[in-house]
Amino acid sequence: MNRKSKFITAIKIVLVLLAVYFGNQWYENRYNAFEKNYVVGELEKTYRIYGQGTSIDFIFDYYGKRNKASNYLGTNKIVSKNYLIEVPIKDIKKSRILWDYPVPDTLKAPYEGWEEIPAFLKKRPREN
Questions:
Q1: What's the CA gap between 21 and 89, in Å, rounded?
Q2: Which of 7, 59, 90, 92 registers the highest number of CB atoms within 10 A of its CB?
């Protein structure tokens, strides 16, 4: 490989990385603009997609309907079977597990969910 082709390859790699970065920023900004409610969800199975890391399915009830979604597990540790779920009102399939908010089995969300994270969960010290 000559010097010019190495340079062109490096430029292509940088452009792809920039496209991925800005695409993710756009997605996050769009997600953050959604109005959200919060419900209690139950973790189900984990599975590994080749080359993409581990994902986890979860279920939650929202307005009386049972919904199912999945998130990447990433570096998060599973410390509970139930977690607070952030539900974008206009795009329920994009719901996310809030890993910092494990909840007890006995906690049930209202029919329509909470409009914000409940105060009794916000103040809870994080267990390590």
A1: 26
A2: 92
